[in-house]
Write a structure and sequence with these properties.
Radius of gyration: 15 Å
Length: 138
């Protein structure tokens, strides 16, 4: 079943704010929260993430009906990519080196910002590219 494209974009906007706060505050706890949000989105799909729940319960009822839909697999893959970067960032912030925490968090922030502001999902594009490459290999 396809999903409302506004949901992942809303989640990316919240993620952008959270990751920017992580970089400003240097908070491993806040990054741990974002890592959990990515993990839930990767495991259950973007609708199962905390931001997906917030969109579904508080935001979507106030919007008009969706006009665009997308398959759930690319955003779910993007959540897994976000989980990887947030996990690396968490390692950097807690165990070191600090530059790893900053770089990985910054990369995740850049990807979330692109999705939130421009609707361009890097993780989704990577999913589609990998799928095309796998079809050629088979």
């Amino acid at each position: 079943m396809d999903i409302d494209v506004r949901g992942p974009r809303f989640g990316a906007a919240v993620t952008t704010v959270v990751l920017a706060a992580v970089l400003v505050a240097g908070s491993a706890w806040l990054l741990a929260w974002q890592t959990l949000a990515f993990a839930l989105g990767a495991a259950g799909g973007v609708g199962r993430s905390p931001y997906g729940w917030l969109f579904r319960t508080a935001v979507r009822p106030r919007l008009g009906p969706p006009t665009e839909f997308e398959p759930p697999e690319p955003p779910r893959f993007a959540q897994a990519v976000g989980l990887l970067f947030a996990g690396l960032g968490l390692v950097g912030y807690t165990l070191g080196p600090e530059w790893l925490g900053l770089a990985a968090t910054g990369a995740a922030l850049a990807a979330a910002f692109l999705n939130a502001v421009f609707g361009y999902c890097l993780g989704c594009e990577a999913f589609l590219l990998l799928r095309r490459l796998m079809v050629r290999v088979e």
